[in-house]
Amino acid sequence: MAAQLTSTEDNLARILAVESSFGRYGKPLKKPGRVLVGEGCLTKLCKRSPQPRVFFLFNDILVYGSIIVQDRLYTGQKVIQLEDLMVESLEDSPDMKNQWLLRTPSKSFYVSAASPQEKASWITHIEECRTKRVNERGQGPVEDFAPSWIPDKASAICMRCCTKFSFSQRRHHCRQCGILVCGSCSSQRFLIPNISREPVRVCQVCFQNLQAKEFTRNRGDSGGNSCTEETSSDEDAMMTGSSKNALRGWTPYSHE
Known about the structure:
Blueprint lengths: L1 H20 L14 E10 L4 E9 L2 E9 L3 E9 L4 E4 L9 E5 L4 E5 L3 H22 L34 E2 L6 E2 L6 E3 L9 E3 L1 H15 L23 H4 L5 E2 L4
Antiparallel strand pairs: 1-2, 1-7, 1-12, 2-3, 3-4, 5-6, 6-7, 8-9, 10-11
């Protein structure tokens, strides 16, 4: 009983420390039954370049944010419900090691660890916590996931019309398939509920496919298949630097 009490007190102290590290703009993290399973630093593929991010795995949520002062101050807190999360392990590429994909209905992105062991630890613990969470809630698996965006530097031209990007011809991302497109090829907007409450930018091909899918659905034909083009992200675009590898990749906590 004494050991269990100590573990509970230690867990609460860790959660309050994480909550405090995000400052007044972070969401409250203290909750009955919530346990901090582990934490660490990973490299996240952002829109323009890979960036170090701090991640905290709880038994019901995954929290991450930008690092201001290591182990002390973070910002840009994001919270993902584990029942909405899917993990997809990926093979190494010449420029990208120990990578995997985190997929959610509203956002999907690539992350990488400093070593295969850290990658395995993260994936194992996330999957274990997610499975337990889904079983507790008794809900089916999530089926609609947001696409992962192709990095800006992966293409110098629009991936629809091949127009060269420039200062006046900016890059944009289709929210349905994730490819890089110019303004002319992404002038349409469409409501994708799992991504946004407002209509979002989509390329012309996806706009036509989404319209056709909506038309079929409105006719009551539930057998229609999604025609959305699948576009693979450029996994080779993400790199990890030696300075990022020096950060702690995974720190588990004992709750025995």
